[in-house]
UniProtKB/TrEMBL annotation:
UniProt KW Nucleotide-binding keyword: no
Keyword Metal-binding part of the UniProt annotation: no
Protein name: Cilia- and flagella-associated protein 46
Matching InterPro entries: CFAP46 (IPR039586)
Biological process terms in GO annotation: axoneme assembly; cilium movement involved in cell motility
Gene: CFAP46
Residues passing through the membrane, by range: none
Entry keyword set: Cell projection, Cilium, Flagellum
């Protein structure tokens, strides 16, 4: 929340979204946010694709979304329990499609033009540091996504 407030005025006056610790977004809210955004940020626990209905997502058309930043793959005892209970009802193929590379491919096929995402599990602190670096370089300095990702890799 602090990072969003810090960069609010640099990019847009229309930061719009849902803070998940208040409540979990409904499928309709996910769809509305995704179809109406030019950039989308997911900062949360476990896998992004475990938060939404996969069959609805693959049917979506999201060409207005120029950039999607996915800072997920954070695990806590509670999130692990929730995802484990959810995964029991999914096929192995469905779970495999929720992995980072497959998520990027699916989002690309729906029309998202650029995707920055974690590839492996991390901590909330590390994701907060990544978000700060992303916003600093993309919004304050004005670097391209490629330049910014290169800085993250270092």
């Amino acid at each position: 929340k602090e990072i969003l407030e810090k960069y609010h005025d640099l990019f847009t006056l229309q930061w719009e979204g849902i803070i998940g610790n208040i409540r979990v977004p409904s499928q309709a809210e996910w769809e509305q946010l995704l179809t109406n955004c030019s950039a989308f940020l997911f900062y949360g626990m476990e896998r992004l694709m475990s938060q939404t209905l996969l069959n609805r997502l693959v049917a979506m058309n999201i060409p207005k979304c120029h950039l999607m930043i996915i800072l997920d793959l954070v695990r806590s005892k509670q999130s692990y329990q929730r995802i484990t209970n959810s995964d029991i009802h999914k096929s192995c193929l469905h779970i495999a499609i929720e992995r980072p590379k497959e998520t990027a491919m699916l989002l690309s096929l729906t029309g998202v033009r650029c995707i920055i995402a974690n590839q492996w599990y991390t901590t909330l602190q590390e994701n907060a540091e990544r978000l700060e670096i992303l916003f600093e370089n993309l919004l304050s300095v004005g670097r391209t996504t490629g330049q910014t990702v290169r800085i993250l890799q270092k």
